[in-house]
Amino acid sequence: MTISPKFWTPTHNIWNCLDWHPTKQQFEQFTKLQNLLREWNKNINLTRLIEDNDFWISQIIDSLWPIKNELKNHDKQLQIIDVGTGCGLPGLAIAIALPNSSITLVDSIYKKTHAVKEITKDLGLKSRVSIRTERIEVTGQSSQFRGNFDLAIARAVAQGAVLAEYLIPLLKPSGQAILYKGQWQESEKKELIEALAILKGKILSSEYFLLPEHQGKRHSIRLGSTHECPKKFPRSIGIPLKQPLNNQSTTNL
Q1: 179: how many CB neighbours lie within 10 A of its CB?
Q2: In the chain, what's the furthest Cα-to-Cα distance?
Q3: 210, CA 20 to 30 Å: which among 63, 110, 184, 203?
Q4: Residue in 143, 154, 167 with CA at minimum distance from that of residue 94
């Protein structure tokens, strides 16, 4: 497999910004992932971010920068879930970067999960990456998955209060949820805090990041649990999105 010298250099800034560098094998897996997405995209619209900086920065770097802490301890065995995975990112990039961790990818669209399942197989990740085709409200109420994850992540699939209801029920007591966000407004933070009070969670940290090569601004918000999440959450399919949790909604719960 040909390796692009533009990105495979130990000092290139796209890796320096992570304080982490992929091994040659990991870089080859990222390159193979790019090629597989390119091929599958001929038949199904998985993602438009496939070429050059769109892939390496807006996909791979954007997938990995919120887990910089975990990259420093990449030998640790973690249980991770990627909610609303779409084309398989950030989950597959994380699986490549954290070779001892197990990743569950969840999406409700079969065409996408079928493609991601085949991509996972071709990447040699099948033994520790599983793909589920279902709504996250179902996953969150399953005894197999509820309270089972060290990291629960979601990349720009809904507003913060909605994502919190999807992710908090999945966490182990010491687990953390990570919201990948582009824009992050004070009003959304206020709504998230209100939702977390109901879900028995809290904001642990928030971080702002400029992607290299002027590829955009990003925010990462880490959440944790204060007590066990009430068993009624997540609510039934579609309800979290239609009726996000807030102080006003508590009277109807």
Answers
A1: 28
A2: 60
A3: 203
A4: 154
Number of structural domains (the chain) is 1
Residue 5, in any domain of the structure: no
3: in domain: no
Single-letter amino acid code for the residue at 126: K
159-197 residue pLDDT tens: 999 999 999 999 999 999 999 998 888 889 999 999 999
Q: Per-residue pLDDT tens for 47-71?
A: 999 998 899 999 999 999 999 999 9
The stretches of the chain forming alpha helices (DSSP H) are 13-16, 24-40, 52-55, 62-64, 68-72, 91-97, 110-122, 136-140, 160-167, 186-199, 239-242
Cβ-based neighbours of 11, under 8 Å, separated by 6 or more: none
Distances 147 to 77, 170, 196, 249 between C-alpha atoms, Å? 16, 5, 16, 24
Using alpha carbons, select from 57, 231, 190, 33 the residue that is nearest to residue 116. 33
Which element (helix H / strand E) includes 137?
helix 136-140
The domain that holds 219 is classified in CATH as 3.40.50.150
Token digits of residue 94 = 């994380």
Q: Is 38 exposed, middle or buried (0-12, 13-18, 19+ CB in 10 A)?
A: middle
Phi-psi region of 19 (alpha: psi -120 to 50; beta: other; left: phi over 0): left
